[in-house]
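Action item from last meeting closed. Structure (203 res):
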């Protein structure tokens, strides 16, 4: 189970202000490309599951993931999540020809896609995706991820923090933002849901 605090920032100005404040705590910056797949008959999305490739810094690294049963409430997201490292070259080939994915026998995630969700006949369909600039900070013992997510219909800004104590950590992040005069709201939907709706969420 992945549990995250997710706080949405209203614009690039708020994103830049928070980035400047956190700059002494900077750890990494990643350029991510997220590409999503579904069964030919929407067998994954109809069961509240999301199947994704995430490429880091072009093709330096690739991670295959499967998320299921996501719930976001009051800025806290919970979802079942499985992740595996994946060969970037093979990943790119699967994006170009999605039928290749179900032929990969070494992946437990793809085994689950075939067996639990029944994706077989008709194979997988590539849904497209979006790019994300993720800046990581080590702040007050927490790993903060400041995202600038670029869709072809607009840009979304979000602060995330994976947490074992989400209510406590949410209060810490709220205090950080309020003390520095940075507006925010609770994220209500996932990045994938925004991508599928083709509309940025209201503030």
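Sequence:
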């Amino acid at each position: 189970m992945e549990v995250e605090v997710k706080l949405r920032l209203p614009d690039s100005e708020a994103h830049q202000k928070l980035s400047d404040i956190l700059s002494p705590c900077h750890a990494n910056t990643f350029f991510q490309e997220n590409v999503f797949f579904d069964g030919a008959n929407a067998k994954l999305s109809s069961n509240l599951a999301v199947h994704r490739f995430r490429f880091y810094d072009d093709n330096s690294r690739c991670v295959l993931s499967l998320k299921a049963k996501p719930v976001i409430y009051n800025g806290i997201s919970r979802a079942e999540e499985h992740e595996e490292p994946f060969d970037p070259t093979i990943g790119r080939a699967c994006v170009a020809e999605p039928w290749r994915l179900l032929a990969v026998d070494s992946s437990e995630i793809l085994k689950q896609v075939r067996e639990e969700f029944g994706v077989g006949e008709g194979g997988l369909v590539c849904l497209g995706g979006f790019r994300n600039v993720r800046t990581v900070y080590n702040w007050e013992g927490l790993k903060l991820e400041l995202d600038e997510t670029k869709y072809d219909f607009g840009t979304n800004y979000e602060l995330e923090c994976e947490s074992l104590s989400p209510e406590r950590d949410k209060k810490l992040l709220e205090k950080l933002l309020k003390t520095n005069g940075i507006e925010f709201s609770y994220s209500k939907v996932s990045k994938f849901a925004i991508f599928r709706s083709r509309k940025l969420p209201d503030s």
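Note appended to the action item: The longest strand covers residues 124-139.
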